[in-house]
Structure formats: C-alpha cells, structure tokens
Amino acid sequence: MGVALVISGLAGCGQTTASKKEQSKPLNVTMPSELQTADPNKATDAYSFYMMRQTTEGLYRLNNSGKVVAGMATKVVKPTANGKTYTLTLRHNAKWSNGDSVTAQDFVTSFRRQVDPTTKAQYANRFATFVNYSAVQTGKKQPSALGVKALGKYKLQIKLSQANPSFNYEAATEYLPVNQKLVKKYGSTYGTNSARVAANGPYVLKKWNGTKTTWEYVKNRHYYAAKSVRLKQINVQVTKDPSTAEKLFAAGKVQETQISGTTIAGVANNAQLKSQMRKTLTTAVTLQYFNPRNKVSANANFRKAANYALNRAQLTQKVNQDGSQPLLNLVAKGVTKDPNNGKDFAVSTGNYTRHNDAQAKKLWAQAKKELGGGKQTITLLTNDSDGTKNVAEYIQSQWEKDMPGLTVNISSMPLQQQINKMFKQNFDVSMFGWTGDEPDPTTDLNLFMKGNSVNFANYNDAKYNQLMTAATTETNTKKRMSLLKQANQRAMQVGIFNPVYQQAQVNLVSKKVGGIHYSTFSVAAQYRYAYWK
C-alpha cells in the first residue's frame, strides 16, 4: 500500500519530477544527536531508531502516512487464541544487504537475544507480553522458552501471555530482526559500527565507526522493494545547534534539517525559509524524573512545588516557540480516546500540571522544614542540545524564583552520556524525552511500572502497579481504559515523573525535494519515499 501511494503521488508530478540520473544526486540531511548503536537489541535512543527506520524492517512497517502495513511479513495478520497467537509468513524475496535471505530464525534470534539477561538490553521489556518473558529475564528459563519460534524457514509463530492492543505498532517499530550469521560472527560487537551489521530495509548504513558524527545511507540493492526507492544516497551529519542547522539549510548545503528554540522565530520572519518550514505536533513527551534516592528529590513536597512552579504555557510559547504544548499528565494528547466518554484520553484524565506560584512557595516552605531548613542544592541533568539547554535554564529560573534557598545546577552532556547516568541512577533530577509510538496510553504509562528499565530508580508504587497489572489482563475495553486512567492519576499524585510538555518537531525541507512526510507517530522522515523534484 505504501509503495502504491508513492507511485501514484509521483505520477501526478509529471514533468516536474527530476530525471533518473538526477535522482542519484545525494540528499544531505542533519540529525540532532549521535547514534548510540546499530544493534536493534541494544538501542535505547530515538536517533538510533530513526536510523533503523531507514535500514531495518520488521514484520510490519509504517508507510509514509504512519499506517501499519506489511513489511517482512506478507500481510498484517489477525491473531488467534483470543488475540494471543500470531502466525506470520515472511516474504521469500526478502534479503539482507549481504545477500542472505531474511528468515524466521532471524526474528527468533533477535527476540531471544534481546530478552536474554546476558545481553543486558535496557529495553528487553518491549517483549514483556511474550510467553515466558519474566522467567527468561530473571534467568529461571532459557531464552529458547520465549514465546517465539520458527515453524519453517519463512514461517514465524509468536505467542503472547495476554492480548496486546499495540502489537501491530510494535511489530512495525520495535520488533526488529538481526542477521543471525553476523550475530554469531561478531557477538556483543554486532552493530557497533556499519561494517558489523547488515540491513534488510531500503538503505544500508555506511561510513559509521560507532562514534562519528557523519554517516551515509546507501540504497540497498537487495531490498525487495528497491525499485520504489528513488534516492541512491543520503548523507547525514549531526548538527546540535539549530542556528547552525538553519544556516546550512539556507546555504543549500542540506535539504532537510530540524530546528528549535529562538531559531524558529528567525525563520518565521524570512519568507523564503518560512515557506519551507513544517511543524508537527508529536506524541513524544518531555518529562522529569526525580530520583527518590536523593534527599531533596525524594521529598514529596519539593516535587509538588517543582510541578506548580512551572508555567508550561509560557515555556512552550516563549521558550520552545515550536508548537509544543503543555502536558496535562503522563499521556500526550492524540494518543487515543477514552471510550467511556469520547474525550481524548489525556483530557479525560484531567489537568495535573496547573501553574501556581503561591502554592509552589507554600509547598517549598514545608519541604524545607522536612529537609532541615537552610539552603538546598540539586542538579538538573539534561542532554546538550541547544533547545534543551534553553528549557533547562527556564526551569532553573522558575524553580529558584518560587523556591528561595534552592540552588539549581544544570549538567548538560551528550545524550548517550545522559542515558548512561540515568541507568546508573547517578542523578538528582533528569529531564528527558520519551517517544512512544503506539496509539495506546501504555506507551507512556508503562514507564512508571515496577521493573520497567526507564523507571530509572525502579520506584515501586504498589497501587500504581496494581492498576496497571489489572489493565493488562482486562479484556473489556471500557474497563481497561478506566483502569489506565486511574493509573495515570495515581502517577501524578506520586509525582516521581513530572510531565513538562508534548513535543513538536520543526523541520526545514527543501522545495526541491518531494516525498518527505511527518506524522504524529512517525516523526522520522522515511527517505525511501523521497525524491528530487
């Protein structure tokens, strides 16, 4: 379906589409941060997954409108056994970039490897609904016990412990294969550079050594739909500073880039650049995590004061200036509707992020008494992108204004270093982005679950876990959504996670390029659809 849409779209362009020879001209683009890995079993950052959107295809994939369509599987199947068993047939013509056939065993190897505790995959819990997941993760059973097996070279069976409403989206974005032969050859170093990984998607990752800030996507001649892929090469460079990104674009040195902060206002005042600017409100969220092992951030009144002190409307309108919106609770608007009342789920849950300076000061006074009075200091951990620094400085000013005696230090570092610090629980308060890609509240609510790797200090709230666990086994849609709403409300009452804003993405896309599209759940452009006009 995705290919047909592209072909019909191009056909309408007629003579405005560039010649076949011109399509071989490289497209130059930017990425806001470095890649962490090319190993789908070990990736935790959005940018590595953005790269894999170009190079690695799952059982399903997202088309250019963000809809789930068949990928390595021949079709999107309906589950049996009350939604708990998926039997999929793979394409016989699907190949890896090294010429190997893509087989059911490549998926089996990948899924088992990610859940195997010796892999130390931080996102192993993406397979939490698979049969025997917990037993494998805790070492009670071997990885071979996981609910996935090859029924033949091109036939795969997946068994779940309970029905998963988000399965199709996860199969399109998270359940990715690995080349079993290369995994056997390279072991734990699989995907640490572009020479130690194979691609089964439209493009092959090239010229990346594991730390470089430039790399290439080169058309995969073995890809089953290679004829529909127009561009032969994409050159990527990491550009963290939006001002630099804008200058590169204005000079014609890149044809697609992302901008943020004050740079957006400058572009909006430039008619030529403004006509090439695109804003997309996403379901990605920016949150703060308060480490309950730190004296200050463990204090409930401090956390509540920190919530009230933030004027999120001012933050999104004056600082971000990108179309982002204040979060009302842990779930972004647009994820799904509440079937009990027809409202957006986030709206139905209620607004738990109202700004109130007086309330913040009152709660901080109580917190200071509990903390022993005097002056207190905390460090706000962030990544080092320009836009994030601006947000951090705004939060610093708001907190210090409403909480006299509190000193807020900002520690900014490359995203991967920040992630490592969070997983080591070496922080006071950390601000981070989370990109959920399923149209279900659990895409955000699972973060606070006991045992979830992104619940960094593994805070355990019994009532929250009880509600979430009940929701996983509830088959009645209305009752399930009611439980999830109660869980969302409970998370806001506890306040370990503090919602900040729902992210918007602002891109500059050259008028010379067609086929680049962004959607709510799919903010990474898929270059397989791009072409020179």
Q: What Rg do the Cα atoms give?
A: 23 Å
* Average pLDDT over all residues: 92
For the record, the CATH architecture of the largest domain stands as Roll
Please tally the helical runs, counting DSSP H or I stretches of 4 or more residues: 18
Description:
By secondary structure, the protein is of the alpha+beta class. It has two domains: 32-233, Dipeptide-binding Protein, domain 1 (Alpha-Beta Complex), CATH 3.90.76.10; 281-505, Dipeptide-binding Protein, domain 3 (Roll), CATH 3.10.105.10. The protein contains 18 helices and 18 strands. Strands 10, 11, 12, 13, 14, 15 and 16 form a seven-stranded mixed sheet that branches. The protein has a four-stranded mixed sheet with strand order 1-9-8-7, covered by helices on one side. Strands 4-6-5 form a three-stranded antiparallel sheet, covered by helices on one side. The longest helix is centred in the C-terminal third of the chain and has 18 residues, at 477-494. The radius of gyration is 23 Å and the shape is globular.
What is the element layout, followed by pairings?
Blueprint: H1 2-11, E1 27-31, H2 46-55, E2 60-62, E3 68-70, E4 85-89, H3 104-115, H4 133-137, E5 148-152, E6 155-159, H5 167-173, H6 180-186, E7 203-206, E8 214-219, E9 233-238, H7 242-250, E10 256-259, H8 262-268, H9 271-274, E11 277-290, H10 300-309, H11 312-320, E12 325-326, H12 345-349, H13 357-370, E13 376-383, H14 386-402, E14 406-413, H15 415-423, E15 429-434, H16 442-445, H17 462-473, H18 477-494, E16 497-509, E17 513-514, E18 531-532
Helix pairs in contact: 10-13, 17-18
